[in-house]
Amino acid sequence: MKGMQTRLVHGGDPNPRIGGAVVPPIFQSATFEQKEGNDYHDGEYIRLSNTPGHVSLHEKLALVCGTESALVASSGMAAITSTLLALLSEGDGLLAENRLYGGTESFVSGDLQRWGVQVHRFDGTDPQSFQDPPPGTKVLYCEAISNPLCRIPDFQRLTDWAKSHGIVTVIDSTFATPVLFRPVEHGFDLEVHSATKGLNGHGDIAAGLVAGSHEMVEKVRRCLNLLGGHLDAHACFLLYRGLRTLGLRVDRQCQNADGLARFLSDHPRVKQVNHPTLEDHPDFQKCQKYMGGRGGGVLSFEIDGSVEQAQQICVSTKLMANAPSLGGVETLITRPASSSHAGVDREVRIAQGVTDELIRVACGVEDLEDLIEDLDVVLGGQLA
Ligand SMILES: Cc1ncc(COP(=O)(O)O)c(C=O)c1O
User: Fold this and answer.
1) pLDDT digits over 219-235, tens only?
2) pLDDT band for position 191 (cuts 50, 70, 90)
């Protein structure tokens, strides 16, 4: 199976088909009959993420990510926290990017520091950040496309640098998905995802993913098993189903985001648009180099107006729901200052470029013309 879409559709399917079912069934059982001669640790048990439903899903995801191994979890945060807990001990250093998803940021700067991990920061888009690492640094952690300004680090440079210092590299690739970017091809040791987003793509489950070498994933699996962060049987089935159309959905979301970004760039009420397919985006070249010129389904923009006007736009669109999250089939609109970044200190947030007026759109797969019209009406009817 060479092609991405073929892997997404057929990867992991049981052979022969179970009862002839073309769609693999839901294995809604917590425990499974022990095969003769197997000891306790070979037993299939839902919390150990080794039921037939988990195994098929892991096979599909490893094929899609191009990794030796993959492991699903009950949410993106379960995948991220288990990974960091598995790799770090008291006294170790973590080099964390300075613009992380809010939940990860709270865990890293709060809990991990409280447990004695030394947390240092770096800017993945600034080569000056890669100097000698602080002593004791064990892990480097970054994100593939940042939320909501769509910044992209220089991945190859980052992993080359980390490798030369013996540092394990982990990337949250939720915004890119394996369709746009496969981190192991650029030297990352582990990738983590919120599969709640694009991988499942239908906004109806929470799920997470860790993928990488067998050895690394096994380390995380031990931690996840003990924390009880497995994915339940029905969610395994839904994630497996969602993955089959990932390629089609990402194609459409990328087209919609690029189209909306260009429409907004020409709009008189808009003063700034952030999407990496726009030639004036600071990471346009990296988007070309690492993602084949497709920048994902999320964009953000700033209007020439007040916070209240920005908020009014978010609650006035008809097709776009005012809700956090991304990667689903329906388009969502939010103001990061009051959603994803509500917990970030205002000064820090503004310094990062996430202003009070900034609006984020996470594109779904609707028709671009309808999305443009939806935004145009709330922006004052340019097209009318
Ligand atoms: C980039 C990123 N990573 C991780 C997460 C956490 O995922 P979950 O909500 O599935 O735990 C999110 C959620 O929005 C996210 O956007």
Assistant:
1) 999 999 999 999 999 99
2) very high
What residue owns the CA closest to ligand 1's atom 6? Answer: 76
Find the CATH number of the domain harbouring 82. Answer: 3.40.640.10
In angstroms, the CA 331 to CA 46 distance is 34
15-68 residue pLDDT tens:
999 999 999 999 999 999 987 777 776 789 999 999 999 999 999 999 999 999
Residues 187 and 264 in one domain: no
Q: How far apart are CA 231 and CA 47, in angstroms?
A: 8
Report which ligand 1 atom has the smallest distance to the Cα of 78. 11
**Pair 58, 82 in one domain:** yes
Domain end marker among 243, 262, 279? 243
Nearest CA to ligand 1 atom 7: 76
Please say which residue of 223, 243, 263 terminates a domain: 243
Spatial separation of the C-alpha atoms in residues 305 and 344, rounded to whole Å:
23
- For residue 339, what are the domain limits? 247-379
- Total number of domains in the chain: 2
| CB proximity list for 3: less than 8 A, separation 6 or greater | none
Residue 80 half-sphere exposure, CB side, CA atoms within 13 Å? 27
Spacing, Cα 326 to ligand 1 middle (Å): 9
CA dist 70 → 60, 167, 176, 219 (Å): 9, 21, 17, 12
Classify strands 93-97 and 118-122 as parallel, antiparallel or unpaired.
parallel
Average pLDDT, whole number, for the chain? Answer: 95
In percent, how much of the chain has pLDDT > 70?
98
Question: Measuring CA to CA, which residue among 59, 79, 52 is closest to residue 227?
Answer: 79
* Shared domain check, 212 and 72: yes
